């Protein structure tokens, strides 16, 4: 890749402060910038590196005011983080894997419909009655069971297992070893202490532009569908149980688990290691901080929840202050008891 600073600025709808004719050939972190690279500064915690970086160009917010001299050409944009994301996406298109064709050995059932431009890696399997869209990339050792639908331009990375009747929309990305559509955890206790398996007869529906991380599992519904709405981003090692619904543009970080039949709203942010019980509702724009345990429904949109059991984050942080003082309070109480006995 080789672009001039002017070309990058045009791509990002930015303004240039410096030499627009300079050329860049790579992307880099601002603290590791070299001549010929373009970096960005969005978090002012890294501002110090602007004055020492060797990056040819640095993308910054229009509102940013440097405090010292610098040597890089600046590209001024509305939002540096978003602008650099656009640049990364364009770079990804250049270096993307453009593989096409069907490697052998692999298997495609005769009853399945395969779109143009598909790539199917070796040792992959496509079952009966599947519909695979145009320009889909299915990497090595992927298993796609019967009657699965995958929309155009989706990417399925090595080792993914997709159970029968799963629907996957367009432009989705499913990373290595994810399992989509395995049985929900349904067992009915019996009088003799044993458990009888409850058949899981539903499926998983994943809408357009969803990203699913490595080793994540999404269970099929008992009846109906487990549903992941448009634009959802799910990290690695996340468990989503049967009949869960995740609202559009919600993001879920690693090692979180959502129990059965819970409904998560739109534009929520769920941090790492969060546990959410079943059969509750989390409203739109909720933020759940790391390692929280959500044990009940909430109604108010836009809340920040923390702790276990989760409550409004301000209340949780206030309680933590009291907990840290318990040892001192215990000592004071013991002293008062001794004086009273005397």
UniProtKB/TrEMBL annotation:
Known partners and oligomeric status: Homotrimer.
Native species of this protein?
Pseudarcicella hirudinis
Q: Which domain of life is it from?
A: Bacteria
SUPFAM superfamilies (UniProt xref): Trimeric LpxA-like enzymes
Gene3D superfamilies given for it? Hexapeptide repeat proteins, MurE/MurF, N-terminal domain
Gene Ontology CC, one term: membrane
- Which GO-annotated molecular functions does the record name? N-acyltransferase activity; UDP-3-O-[(3R)-3-hydroxyacyl]-glucosamine N-acyltransferase activity
- GO annotations under biological process? lipid A biosynthetic process
Listed pathway(s): Bacterial outer membrane biogenesis; LPS lipid A biosynthesis
Catalytic reaction list = a UDP-3-O-[(3R)-3-hydroxyacyl]-alpha-D-glucosamine + a (3R)-hydroxyacyl-[ACP] = a UDP-2-N,3-O-bis[(3R)-3-hydroxyacyl]-alpha-D-glucosamine + holo-[ACP] + H(+)
Check the UniProt entry and state the signal peptide residues, or none. Answer: none
The catalytic residues are 242
- Give a Pfam family name: Hexapep
What is the stated purpose of this protein?
Answer: Catalyzes the N-acylation of UDP-3-O-acylglucosamine using 3-hydroxyacyl-ACP as the acyl donor. Is involved in the biosynthesis of lipid A, a phosphorylated glycolipid that anchors the lipopolysaccharide to the outer membrane of the cell.
Keywords of this entry: Acyltransferase, Lipid A biosynthesis, Lipid biosynthesis, Lipid metabolism, Repeat, Transferase
What InterPro entries does this protein map onto?
A: Hexapep (IPR001451), LpxD (IPR007691), Trimer_LpxA-like_sf (IPR011004), UDP_GlcNAc_AcTrfase_non-rep (IPR020573)
Q: What sort of enzyme, by top EC class, is this? A: transferase
Boundaries of every UDP-3-O-[3-hydroxymyristoyl] glucosamine N-acyltransferase non-repeat region domain copy: 22-89
Protein name per the record: UDP-3-O-acylglucosamine N-acyltransferase
Cite the PANTHER family for this sequence: UDP-3-O-ACYLGLUCOSAMINE N-ACYLTRANSFERASE, UDP-3-O-ACYLGLUCOSAMINE N-ACYLTRANSFERASE 1, MITOCHONDRIAL-RELATED
Question: What family, per the record?
Answer: Belongs to the transferase hexapeptide repeat family. LpxD subfamily.
Give the EC number. 2.3.1.191
